[in-house]
Amino acid sequence: MLQISATDGWRAAHARATIGVLELSGLDNHGSSSRLNERKRAIEAGLRERYQGFSRQDFLALPVMAEYERYYKRFNKTYHVQLQLESIVLKGKPLPDVSPAVDANFMAEVETLILTAGHDGQNLAGPIVIDVSRDGDQMTQMNGACRALRSGDMIMRDAGGISCSIIYGQDARSPISPESSRVLYVAYAPAEIAADVVERQLDRIEEHLRLFSPNLVVEQRRRLTA
Predict the structure, then answer these.
(1) C-alpha–C-alpha distance, residues 210 and 193, integer Å
(2) Most buried by CB count within 10 Å: which residue of 12, 54, 128, 200?
(3) Architecture of domain 4-225
């Protein structure tokens, strides 16, 4: 089990924020899953029905979305889950097909709107800490680009450096791949988002994962609060 803690700096900078942690082992992430694909189509249809007639301002008025919009606005960015939800509802686009364990997270995100990163646990090295970015921090993004981070963002660090940033996403070392068998999902919820919504996100991820990998073992599931 990975050892994960939060720094006093994170707690001071992000009072009332919540981090949800879900670590699982025994994953089979090869190929595709007909059961997962059926669930995707059901989620897409449900979202289009639920948000029929919504405009961008209507999406931004949703309580969870509004909190992320406030967070992202500090960095002059747009919440990417908002854009993904709009593409499904307003443009008729499907959920992506990457790999089952990645797709399960995307599916949960558009249901609960909670931002969550998925990591290959075997590519993370302790100590792992939830922290706040500082001037001079850098990370190598999934596309291989080196990115200088703005200070004040919620991030996760391990022994190899910064492995995730809310604003700039995940690093190039630890994303889930088809070969991943131990995975770590980390949900990032800014202040004022209720803890039960974070719990619902973790529930949804595990539920989707068990559609194609029923023998998963939960290594840890917990929340860190500021």
Answers:
(1) 27
(2) 128
(3) 3-Layer(bba) Sandwich (3.50)
pLDDT digits (tens, 9 = 90+) for 7-40: 999 999 999 999 999 999 999 998 889 999 999 9
Q: Which residues contact 124 (CB under 8 A, 6 or more apart)?
A: 2, 158, 160, 163, 174, 184
Site of tokens 């992000």: 14
Answer whether 0.90 is exceeded by the pTM: yes
> Element (H or E) spanning 158, and its range?
strand 154-158
* Residue type at position 165: S
According to the model, what pLDDT value does residue 32 have?
A: 86
Domain layout of the chain by residue ranges: 4-225
Residue 41: what residue type? R
DSSP string, 112-148: H--EEEEEEGGG--S-EEEEE--TT-EEEBTTS-EEE
